[in-house]
Glutathione S-transferase (Fusarium poae), 213 residues
Amino acid sequence: MSELKPITVYVHSAGPNPFKVIIVLEELSVPYTKIVVDNPKEDWFVAINPNGRVPAIKDPNSNIVLWESGAIMEYLVETYDVDKRLCGASPSSKWEIKQYLHFQMSGQGPYYGQAMWFHKCPQDIPIAKERYVNEIIRVISVLDNILEGKKYLVDDKLTYADIAFVPWNRVVSQHPLFETSLWKGRDVDHKYPSFSAWHERLNNLSSVRAAYE
């Protein structure tokens, strides 16, 4: 797709959600440029995304501006995935992929984000930290059950549903704040082997490595 103009992706240096968009762009070999937004509440960026959060994109090839990572992922796949690299192989897979994307957007991201907030909070609130760590484990156990005997969520092939889960899973598996309370403390690698194998498989994708360079 060398004839395409680069898509502008607005990101934050510490935010996980923009990586969902970057990984999809890497998978589809769509050119892009990143603009780091230090303060997404500034007027210039609120004019792009009234919600004042990243990611957002400007696509000069279609003159479209979009925000919300899930919507951006769907747009990129529907617009640029001509070879169906990130789509399913069965007639029902379109809806299964959307199902998992909605699960990630409503069931993974917000709870993982709250866990991070309470772990970083200057005021130690153990009951809040425990609540959200327990919810992370619950989500991991759901995914572990779904992935038993499978490599990926839908049709046993990589789709953008899998990619959606990558950034927050990386946060809770790698951030020092969670080392004792979650990943090692809850023995995630051994207690949830299907999830852990999937997580490692996704992290070894060249698109994921490129996104995090």
Notes: DSSP finds ten helices and four strands in the chain. The chain has two domains: 7-80, 93-211. The first helix runs from residue 17 to 28.
